[in-house]
Amino acid sequence: QAQLVESGGDLRQPGGHLRLSCKVSDLRLDDGVIGWFRQAPGKEREGVGCISRREGAIYYLDSVKGRFSISGDNAKNSVDLRLNLLKPEDTAIYYCAATLNHCSRYASSYDFWGQGTQVTVSS
C-alpha cells in the first residue's frame, strides 16, 4: 500500500512560484505512475499532469503548460511539481496520487492519494 505525502503549499502573489513535493513510500517511482491533481473550492478535482518512467511527463491542462513542470527524483523517491508565473486561478488544494497503470487525467484511475497541500495565489 503506497503512501504519499505532499508538502510545499503556501501563499504567493500573482507571478510568483512554488515547488510542491510528493514523497512516496512503499512504491518505487520506476514501478508506478504519479499524478498531480488540484481542486478549487466548489469545483471538481482536475488532473494537472503525471509522470511515469514509461511515458515521461504529461500535462493535461492547457492553462498550466509552459508554467508548471513535473520531475521525479528516484534517489529520494519523490515527485516535484514546480509552479511558475502563478495566477489567482491556480488557487486550489494540490494532491498527488499513485497508480500502477498508465498516466491518466481521471482521479478514478488512481489508487493511492496524499492528503493535499494548499496553494493560494493572491495579492
If you had to describe this structure to a student in words, what would you say it looks like?
The protein has 123 residues and is mainly beta. The chain has no helices and 11 strands. The protein has strands at residues 3-7, 11-12, 18-25, 33-39, 46-52, 56-59, 68-73, 78-83, 92-99, 112-113, 117-121.
List the helices and strands and how they pair.
Elements: E1 3-7, E2 11-12, E3 18-25, E4 33-39, E5 46-52, E6 56-59, E7 68-73, E8 78-83, E9 92-99, E10 112-113, E11 117-121
Parallel strand pairs: 2-11
Antiparallel strand pairs: 1-3, 3-8, 4-5, 4-9, 5-6, 7-8, 9-10, 9-11
Strand content: over 45%
Distance between the termini: 40 Å
The backbone outline, from C-alpha atoms, is globular
Rounded Rg: 13 Å
> From the helix content, strand content and strand pairing, which structural class follows?
mainly beta
* Count of individual beta strands: 11
Would you list the SSEs in sequence order as H and E?
Answer: EEEEEEEEEEE
Main sheet characteristics: 7 strands, mixed
Task: State the helicity in percent bands.
Answer: under 10%
Low-confidence stretches: none
Summed up, the helix count is 0
Mean pLDDT: 95
Name the descriptors.
123 residues, 0% helix, mainly beta
Task: Give a quick rundown of the structure.
The chain has 123 residues and is mainly β.
